[in-house]
């Protein structure tokens, strides 16, 4: 995915705490904002223009974090992002979901969970605070983990400039990229070209 998106741009890939080779345990939105702020601080030292792409709960973390601190962030893209954590469907046994889950298995996948019950901010409340920040909300029409209605609700609450990209037959988050690579990349590239020109 990084190679596909690195057309005239650099891509910084991030594993939040409790994922991949990152230490700690995932707190399900409660503390991960500090992880994103650390990455943004690094990026600001090297780049004039920054876009954040968040997948699933990564998109929620981005919304909640940037609603408080978006200095030098010029656009946001969320992919398969829940609008309310408690409303996540997680229909793992839906038709085709087991196949998609197996296809997504790779080294570093999954997470080491921490406390699930720490206080969380609601992205549906926070996204309206991003007024003036260009936001692309992408969602797969057949997302059985986070239903497509989450994307529509986030879009309704977001301020302009904004765009909603519903991908027919698309699955959840990174599965959306795997199954609809060209369509996914076309949407992202068109958005980034408008929001932040290449070589910046």
Observed structural traits:
alpha/beta; 36% helix; Rossmann fold; four-stranded parallel β-sheet; globular; 200 residues; 4 strands
Rg for CA atoms:
16 Å
Structural domain count = 1
- Structure summary, number of beta strands: 4
Label the overall shape.
globular
SSE order, one letter for each helix or strand: HHEHEHHEHEHH
End-to-end Cα distance: 20 Å
CATH architecture heading? 3-Layer(aba) Sandwich
CATH class: Alpha Beta
Provide mean pLDDT, rounded: 88
Structural class: alpha/beta
Strand order of the largest sheet: 1-2-3-4
What is the fold named in CATH at topology level? Rossmann fold
List the helices and strands and how they pair.
Layout: H1 2-5, H2 33-46, E1 51-55, H3 57-66, E2 75-79, H4 97-104, H5 123-126, E3 135-140, H6 148-157, E4 162-167, H7 174-179, H8 181-195
Parallel strand pairs: 1-2, 2-3, 3-4
Helix pairs in contact: 2-3
């Amino acid at each position: 995915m990084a190679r596909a998106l690195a057309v005239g741009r650099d891509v910084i890939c991030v594993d939040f705490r409790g994922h991949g080779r990152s230490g700690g345990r995932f707190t399900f939105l409660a503390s991960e904002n500090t992880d994103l702020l650390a990455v943004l601080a690094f990026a600001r030292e090297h780049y004039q223009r920054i876009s954040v792409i968040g997948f699933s709960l990564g998109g929620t973390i981005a919304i909640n974090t940037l609603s408080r601190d978006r200095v030098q962030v010029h656009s946001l893209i969320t992919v398969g992002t829940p609008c309310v954590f408690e409303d996540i469907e997680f229909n793992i046994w839906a038709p085709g979901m087991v196949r998609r889950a197996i296809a997504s298995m790779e080294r570093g996948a999954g997470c080491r969970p921490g406390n699930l019950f720490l206080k969380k901010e609601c992205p549906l409340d926070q996204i309206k605070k991003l007024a003036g920040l260009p936001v692309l909300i992408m969602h797969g029409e057949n997302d059985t983990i986070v239903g497509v209605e989450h994307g529509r609700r986030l879009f309704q609450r977001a301020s302009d400039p904004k765009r909603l990209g519903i991908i027919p037959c698309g699955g959840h988050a990174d599965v959306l990229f795997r199954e609809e690579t060209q369509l996914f990349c076309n949407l992202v590239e068109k958005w980034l070209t408008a929001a932040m020109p290449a070589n910046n």
